[in-house]
Amino acid sequence: MPKVVYVDESGVERTVDAALGANVMASAVRNGVPGIVGECGGNNSCATCHVWVREEFLDVVGAPGDLEDDLLDLGVEDRRPGSRLGCQIEMTAELDGLVVDVPPSQY
Ligand code: FES
User: Fold this and answer.
1) Which residue, among 34, 32, 27, has the nearest Cα to 7 in the 3D structure?
2) Which of 27, 43, 51, 73 to mutate to test the pocket of ligand 1 (most atoms within 8 A of CB)?
């Protein structure tokens, strides 16, 4: 199972095993990672699953789609180059060890 490392604003790391094909939001919620809400259940409509993908993973994670890009513009407080919606990142073997920073707030 690929692992995802979630880092909170204090630098605390939480590593979870994510099933292949599961997304970064659902993997966090299922494992009780604080700071990821996932209010819309992964339907790309709430932006409460915002994460900052670490720079070294940006190429393999890829860019957001058009709808996600709009939602990031409108729905997150601190958009950065690595901003993605966790529900739109599907875990693959290639993403094993993915590190994402969790914003201090999702609103
Ligand atoms: Fe709502 Fe990701 S869970 S946009």
Assistant:
1) 34
2) 43
